[in-house]
Amino acid sequence: MPANSRFAIAVHILTLMARAGDESMKSDEVACSVNTNPVVIRRILCALSKAGLVVSQTGASGGSRLALKPSRITLLEVYRAVDAGDVFALHPQPPNAKCPVGMNIEGALDRILNEVEQGVERVLEKITIEKVLKSIEPRAAKARAARSENRNSGKKEREL
Amino acid sequence: MPANSRFAIAVHILTLMARAGDESMKSDEVACSVNTNPVVIRRILCALSKAGLVVSQTGASGGSRLALKPSRITLLEVYRAVDAGDVFALHPQPPNAKCPVGMNIEGALDRILNEVEQGVERVLEKITIEKVLKSIEPRAAKARAARSENRNSGKKEREL
DNA sequence: TCCATTTGTAACTATAATTGTTACTAATAC
DNA sequence: GTATTAGTAACAATTATAGTTACAAATGGA
Fold it and tell me: Residues A11, A78: contact at Cβ < 8 Å?
């Protein structure tokens, strides 16, 4: 199943919560939108909570909500909060230290990996959760309009 | 074992061949430096060959060598040649289409993934195999000097 | 005070990708 | 013709992920 989707799900979660505003959401509700098990959501929420991006409360009428305004949460913080994994892996086994290339290639690759990660981070730090929510809203509005068209023509659909 | 190391190994292979110049290398020799099985090397060489980065020859005294000068091979071409995988994965299961966020989040994440990949590519296109080899040489030379020190003081080590 | 609800977390399963390995075919040089 | 080498298929071992069940701890309300 490799190449993990925790970052994608984390962005989904935070976008839902940005939309919910002050109201807190339960892991069950979030799981319904993400289409997975609530425990999967809670595991990711736990990481986001440790990073200070959400606050959660146990007990009856508990749940989670954003700890910061959506405009203050960048995708870089999200990427760092969940362990998204490296862009590429180094050698599975250490290369041959008796070879002039084998001896030094890991260091070179490590420096390249750092540069690549910086490239990723430069992109992610420019995108906020607010921006993601806004990029979604017009499409959702369009879909709502289309649905009311359908309703007029007799079709039915449930929505959240 | 997930998060694949094919890109790292491909860079290692090409750096070895850059150093070998016109002489072709056998998958066995490369495997010795990478510290893995020759079939693993041949699989990656096959991808590099399809991308036109190396040429291979079967048969006695066969082997592989670079198809282009080291200064003409960028790491971006290498990254594209081997299937290095995406920086992050989208949802394992499609999100709930009845939810305004679930309905549109995949498209938003896909656009973000494209931007991130472009960030990665901007970094990789600036690094050539020649550059990697040069970043390794001074260290290798230093190590050679240290080894001859050792030899003078009576110690022994094999090298390639 | 007790009960229902919810998070946090451990433990386990199923799935899938990667790497390593053996074995074989086809091509090539000597 | 024989030895050598790449190309490739098939399979095993390892590992991470995602999903699931189960339960303790916290919380709010009756």
Answer: yes
- Taking residues A44-64, report their average pLDDT: 97
Contact A57, A24 (CB under 8 A): yes
- Output the pTM of the full model: 0.90
| Amino acid residing at B30 | V
Please report where in the chains the tokens 């180094």 appear, as a residue.
A90
Which residues make Cβ contacts (< 8 Å) with residue A154, sequence separation at least 6? none
Residue with CA nearest C1' of nucleotide D28: A60
Burial code (b: 16+ CB inside 10 Å, e: under 16) for A1-33 equals eeebbbbbbbbbbbbbbbbbeeebbebebbbbb
A66 touches B101 (CB < 8 A): no
DSSP per-residue letters across B4-28: --HHHHHHHHHHHHHHHTTS-B-HH
Residue with tokens 């074992």: B1
From the list A107, A108, A136, the residue facing B105 with the nearest CB is A136
Tens of pLDDT, residue by residue over B87-107, are 999 999 999 999 999 999 999
Question: Among partner residues B35, B94, B101, which is closest to A136 by beta-carbon distance?
Answer: B101
* Selected residue of B16, B80, B104, B118 to mutate for chain A interface (largest A Cβ count, 10 A): B104
Q: Are B53 and B83 in contact (CB under 8 A)?
A: no
